[in-house]
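FORM 7B: Structural annotation worksheet

SECTION A. Query
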Amino acid sequence: MKKLKVGLIGAGEISETYLNNMINRYKVLEVVGCSDIIPSRSKNRAKQFKIKDMTNEDIYNDPGIDIVVNTTYPTSHYEVNKASLLAGKHVYSEKMIAVTLDEGKELLKIAKEKKLRIGMAPDTFLGAGYQTARKLIDSGMIGEPFMAQAMVVRGYHQERWPAPMYEFTWQPGGGIPFDMGGYYLHALVHLLGPIDKVTGFIP
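SECTION B. Predicted structure
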């Protein structure tokens, strides 16, 4: 099996989990290197995982890299995803793919035009639990679902998410709906189909 070469952009906290999984669990991937807007972070990650310390431009311009894994801050996802696609790379992005719907549509359009793949977290609906639920629904074993409930209890407190390191949690594209809501929405859409109407309230 031909290995796909990967460059990771965004060497922050979650990058350690990504790199560990890509290097130690998936034999189809070969991680070439990583980059970050804070050079010391990518240098430390590169040393930790014995990969190249690169810049974003190094990754975009490397003809051997097939996929960019984007683990930057949410407000940077659109910019990095777009640059990666325009450089001819497939993209896997941390949530969200972009902050606005129009940005997301633009990225999908570019990917389609360039015949590239673009995917993102949350991809948990591909896991065993949700796929089992999918099979139960498709087989008719539980009849026709007419209701589902999903709940998340989480708070972002300044002492846990101090500025400037986690300042993105208080900006558009951050916060609970973007950070955690996507997991539940993805699961519900995967199991029950598209959304016709949304309502909400601020307590």
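SECTION C. Observations
The chain has a mean pLDDT of 90. Strands lie at 4-9, 29-35, 52-53, 67-70, 90-93, 118-120.

SECTION D. Sign-off
Analyst initials: ____
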